[in-house]
Predict the 3D structure of the following.
Amino acid sequence: MWFGNKTEYYMKIGILTQPLVNNYGGTLQNYALQQVLKKLGHDPITIDYIPKSSLIDYLLACLKTMFLFFIPSKRRSFRSHPRRKLRNAQFDKFTRTYILTTKTVSRLRNSLIDEYGIDMLIVGSDQVWRPRYNPYVEDMFFKFVKNDNLRRLSYAASFGTDEWEYTPKQTILIRALINKFMAVSVREESGIKFCESNLSVKAQQVLDPTLLLEEADYRTLCKNIPEDKNKYILAYILDVTQDKEEEIARIEDSEKMNVKYCHAENDATLTVEEWIARFRDASYVITDSFHGTVFSIIFGKPFTCLKNSTRGSSRFDTLLSIYNNGHIEKKQKESLGYLNNILNLNK
């Protein structure tokens, strides 16, 4: 992959993303972004942000769910009371080995900037700008930063959905915050429209960081996992439903191969390296996961993507459009060139 010339303008870059907890795709997109920034000549560090759950926020969310029940098009399920998520042993080992992080913090504070000598902040990738997934979503636009001169940008930040989920009050606040960014890039085409129509900023659509590395990079990560030479279908399903189970059974019967399941979040049992190896060795993949789709593409596997509308279908729409049109490699070069150029602005 072409990375251009390394900049002579070295920066300590702080990355703000979703909490690195038991999420294969979330962990690997952060790993990939750090690797890319290193190849471009910078020194990245991820803010290890794992917020504590709030009983008040949970109760407010329940009240909103009750209200939305009377609007059929917006009905949603009640959430269980969230406890503070922590990394399990598999994810913690990978993070400590491959990802440079700050100390773990439950709230984002300006003091982190000076403590770690951060010259620039990048927010992204993943659904960092989806209020439903972030109790303090305004901090994902750097509300906690006091120095207006500190350079800030987004890389492949995602709203995760085609619907604007911010309240009018939130919209006014984040509009002011995002207009302090030196550049804004988003992961989905829908994000460009949100930025222009709701936040009065122009945005560039770029690839998720995982797609900026090569297949060989991921093969290196899982090189110590023995290759499974038996043909199998990998089913990486985040939200099991009867329809998905029926589709898996149909494909299993059609392809005449056994199915291997793997799960994420609280049900994650594979190490990150083992998870990558499952995609490396699979003959076919069935997934409702965005990053499951990404890694099917990276390893050149035939796959069936079961769009996950609850978690956000716009992510799949943009990715599959680029892939089906044969533009992944072109978009890789564009995204890397864009990031490199932005990092060299105002040096």
Summary: DSSP finds twelve helices and ten strands in the chain. Strands lie at 12-16, 43-46, 120-123, 151-154, 185-186, 204-205, 232-236, 258-262, 284-287, 303-305. The radius of gyration is 20 Å. The chain has two domains: 12-50+85-212+331-343, 217-312.
